[in-house]
Amino acid sequence: MDGGLSGQDPACGAGGRAGSRAAAAAALGAGLGGSVQVRHVDAGSCNGCEIEIGQAFGPVYDAERHGVRLVASPRHADVLTVTGPVTVNMAQPLRATYEAMPRPRLVVAVGDCARDCGVFAGGHGVLGPVGDVVPVDVRVPGCPPEPAAIVAALRGVSGR
Amino acid sequence: MNPVAAALGAAFALAGSGAIAALPAPARWGPAVVGAATAGVGIAGAAAGGAAVSGTVWQAYLPDLLPLAGVRLAVDPLAGWFLLLVGGVAAVVGVYTIGYLGRDGHGPAARGALAVLPVFVAAMLLVPAAGSVSTFLLAWELMAVTSLLLVLGEHRHSPAVRTAGLWYAAMTQAGFVTVLLGLTRLAAAAGGESFAAIRAAGAGLSPVTAGGVFLLCLAGFASKAGAVPLHPWLPRAHAEAPSHVSALMSAAMVKLGVYGIVRVGFDLLGGGARWWWLLLGALGAVSALYGILQAAVATDLKRLLAFSTSENVGLILLGLAAAGVWAGAGQDGVAGVALAAALLHAANHAGFKTLLFCGAGSVLRSTGTRDLDALGGLSRRMPATTALFTVGALCAAALPPGNGFVSEWLLLQALLHQAPQAGTVLTVAAPVAVAVVALTAGVGVATYVKVLGTGFLARPRGDGAATAVESPRSMLVAMGLAAAACAGLAIVPVVAAPALERIAGELRAGPELFAGGGVDLRLAGIGSIVSPLWVAVGVIGLAVGFAAAGRALGRARRRAPAWDCGDGPLTARMEYTATSFAEPLQRVFDDVLAPEQDVDVTPAAESAYIVRAVAYRRRLPDRIEAHLYGPVIAAADAVGRAGRRLANGSVHRYLAYMLAALVAVLVAGVIR
Ligand code: SF4
């Protein structure tokens, strides 16, 4: 791991690290072997998390170095990243996306909203956290989580 | 009795009795009577052709049948090949007609229109059987008139049929005039009107006369064959005619234009100058390319098939051109291969185009539309028709193991051959021709993928397609026969080899085309081999192997719904239409096709940034038609309007015209 990156990683916290380790184990068990294709679904976020994910794949953090790639279809994806609380309208598309993925598959919930509805808890049209709709394997806390945290979580999945 | 004579006699007798029986037959039985008679005429014609291609020749002179010239018939192997082709197509179409026009049928079952059908087939048989200029012209005109009547079959239902009929009538008669001028000039120069007399004198004609005759005949024959730029009648007539008539016209009648070119160019005139054949080659190349490009972007199923006819005729003409050029260069063996390729492609095209037009007719009958954009999903509702159409499309796309592949391979062999003393023109022309064939084949594949994919697969995009029902058995049987013929030609084209050798020998091209027996096609002069049987076995074996391997290895296979972006359900509006599928091709060939496109964005009342509706309109006018025929038609119109002033209703004036005409004729006679 690049020392500089992990150094700017205060917000990731123990939870992130622990999650990463668990995911790494899961990923190795699932045979993802250093190459992870990611499909992203915005289930109702404020787009703050999207901006950070964008940064994670940008030139500074460059998650692709670690064998992680964003793809355009769940048919091509091993990992689903989900942001935001799941809204009533996005619940079914999220389920369908999860169903469309080939096995084995993992779900990474990015951001506080995805974990527990965050600031939107109890809001109009909010169905619940991601875990209520699809099984979640890795959680990345933060509102929004820093790109470094997202990269760390994805590295945990890719094992590189 | 000569078997050719017996079979032809039977054909003409059947045609006559079929036509007569159709008139009083009750409406319910009319289609069956006519269909059976047509099929009978076809079988008899094919029998005559079969006998002729296996070496039986027949000649007859019936002086009392017609005044002045009488009727002269002469059947040689070349005529036999086309008799076989026309007869085979008619036999299939006859069976098809029974169901197509029968109960709950589609199209006109009016007695007159029915009765013409067997007569049309008989006229098509008479064209290759004719042995003199007068008989030939008579048969040609009979064929033109009967086919025109058949094209107009549905004129009550749509004005487009009337326009098509007008175009066809004008062009076929103009073509007849040029053929008439050419052949009568030839007969006058040769000092006799029987083909035998002309053949004997043909070599001694002056090059100017021979060239003029060839050009005149070529204009007429090429327009009948639908070669670009003499084609505008074809997409109209083929699209608007009842489908059984389209099949007969596209598969059989168009080939008689090819027959005319072979008969006059190779046989009667005995070869001729190289520029004839280079001109023919240019015509063929333009037809092939323009035809397939228009087909690729067409959305009307029958119009698409019609343009594909132009394309295939172009390939046939390319083959004939190569034959003429190589024969002139003394390369008899290669010339024979080129001729064989052209003739074989004519037969192959007859096979798959019969099948495809019959398939299109079934679709039209069952869905009420020819618009590919409104079709789709027929594979579920019309599985047999879809399967048969697929066979035809495979053959038409010239992919192995289809029959189109074999003849296009032969054509390429003839074109790729480079004679050492060919000269600059041929050194340039031959590779260009190869490129044309390759590009045509490529676009052809895209075209037929489009037809099959958007017309028959996926989901129905229109009510007609959603409620389609499978065709009656007689139509399926007919299409099955055509598919079997295609398969036969595809897998064992060797059976045609002796006939092709005989024809080539008769036309003074290489006598020894194919070496050795077996299932392979070995070209003696060029030394290449193709084995359609093994190609077919290989392709089918691979396909089956892959399917079996997939099944065996795919233990973890999982059935999942089609991905719909999570926002399902999928609707037919999300599918590729024929228009959208062809859009990239249309873009690539933008400069050639010059489509007229129009995108209209209507914003919402509240804001210009909110779109309320987007309308897209596209028209693909036939450019050659617009630029070449538009001015001619406009000029004819103007002359007609001006001419109206001459006829002001005054009897005195008309009498003066008559007197002037009489005086002019007398003066002309005296001066001469
Ligand atoms: S976690 Fe924060 S940044 Fe992410 S979607 Fe929720 S509110 Fe927006």
TrEMBL record, chain A:
<keyword id="KW-0411">Iron-sulfur</keyword>
<dbReference type="Pfam" id="PF01058">
    <property type="entry name" value="Oxidored_q6"/>
</dbReference>
<dbReference type="GO" id="GO:0046872">
    <property type="term" value="F:metal ion binding"/>
</dbReference>
<comment type="similarity">
    <text>Belongs to the complex I 20 kDa subunit family.</text>
</comment>
<keyword id="KW-0408">Iron</keyword>
<keyword id="KW-0479">Metal-binding</keyword>
<dbReference type="GO" id="GO:0051539">
    <property type="term" value="F:4 iron, 4 sulfur cluster binding"/>
</dbReference>
<dbReference type="InterPro" id="IPR006137">
    <property type="entry name" value="NADH_UbQ_OxRdtase-like_20kDa"/>
</dbReference>
<protein>
    <submittedName>
        <fullName>Oxidoreductase</fullName>
    </submittedName>
</protein>
<keyword id="KW-0004">4Fe-4S</keyword>
<feature type="domain" description="NADH:ubiquinone oxidoreductase-like 20kDa subunit">
    <location>
        <begin position="46"/>
        <end position="155"/>
    </location>
</feature>
<dbReference type="InterPro" id="IPR052375">
    <property type="entry name" value="Complex_I_20kDa-like"/>
</dbReference>
From TrEMBL, chain B:
<feature type="transmembrane region" description="Helical">
    <location>
        <begin position="165"/>
        <end position="188"/>
    </location>
</feature>
<dbReference type="GO" id="GO:0005886">
    <property type="term" value="C:plasma membrane"/>
</dbReference>
<feature type="transmembrane region" description="Helical">
    <location>
        <begin position="476"/>
        <end position="500"/>
    </location>
</feature>
<keyword id="KW-1133">Transmembrane helix</keyword>
<feature type="transmembrane region" description="Helical">
    <location>
        <begin position="243"/>
        <end position="262"/>
    </location>
</feature>
<dbReference type="Pfam" id="PF00361">
    <property type="entry name" value="Proton_antipo_M"/>
</dbReference>
<keyword id="KW-0812">Transmembrane</keyword>
<dbReference type="GO" id="GO:0008137">
    <property type="term" value="F:NADH dehydrogenase (ubiquinone) activity"/>
</dbReference>
<feature type="transmembrane region" description="Helical">
    <location>
        <begin position="200"/>
        <end position="222"/>
    </location>
</feature>
<feature type="transmembrane region" description="Helical">
    <location>
        <begin position="136"/>
        <end position="153"/>
    </location>
</feature>
<feature type="domain" description="NADH:quinone oxidoreductase/Mrp antiporter transmembrane">
    <location>
        <begin position="130"/>
        <end position="427"/>
    </location>
</feature>
<keyword id="KW-0472">Membrane</keyword>
<feature type="transmembrane region" description="Helical">
    <location>
        <begin position="274"/>
        <end position="293"/>
    </location>
</feature>
<feature type="transmembrane region" description="Helical">
    <location>
        <begin position="305"/>
        <end position="329"/>
    </location>
</feature>
<feature type="signal peptide">
    <location>
        <begin position="1"/>
        <end position="21"/>
    </location>
</feature>
<dbReference type="GO" id="GO:0016491">
    <property type="term" value="F:oxidoreductase activity"/>
</dbReference>
<feature type="transmembrane region" description="Helical">
    <location>
        <begin position="654"/>
        <end position="671"/>
    </location>
</feature>
<keyword id="KW-0732">Signal</keyword>
<feature type="transmembrane region" description="Helical">
    <location>
        <begin position="78"/>
        <end position="101"/>
    </location>
</feature>
<dbReference type="InterPro" id="IPR052175">
    <property type="entry name" value="ComplexI-like_HydComp"/>
</dbReference>
<feature type="transmembrane region" description="Helical">
    <location>
        <begin position="113"/>
        <end position="130"/>
    </location>
</feature>
<feature type="transmembrane region" description="Helical">
    <location>
        <begin position="335"/>
        <end position="364"/>
    </location>
</feature>
